[in-house]
Amino acid sequence: AEAKQDAEHEGFCDTEMAKSKITRTKLSEDIDALSSAIESGKATVLELTESTAELQKELTLLGQGEAEAEKIRNEEKAKNEATIADAVAGQEAVAKATVILKDFYTKAAGATAFLQTDSRNEGVKMGSDEWKALANPDYT
Length: 140
Fold this sequence. Notes:
The protein has helices at residues 2-111, 129-135. By secondary structure, the chain is mostly helical.
């Protein structure tokens, strides 16, 4: 009876040891899988941290590029506005000059005439009173 009881106890122990071994193997596999998942997660976190840092650098560079482009646009805008102001002033000057020239040529067209003179008139003779009056305004 004692041998039977020892055999049953040994059978029970063997069964429980086998179950424990299976459970331990299963749990070890689970631990290995979870450890692998943790390492993979850490690698992903590291990769994402590096990626975030790189993206931050790129954002900074983009911001600097945008500021530089805006500065250039503002400078070009100022130059364009100055050019436009010069062009407007030029247009106004041309318009005024055109009015003045039209007025001049309109008046000149009516005032211009050919005069016929006596070809025998030889001008002022040297030494004459007229000559002396031309040379000296105080001459009487």
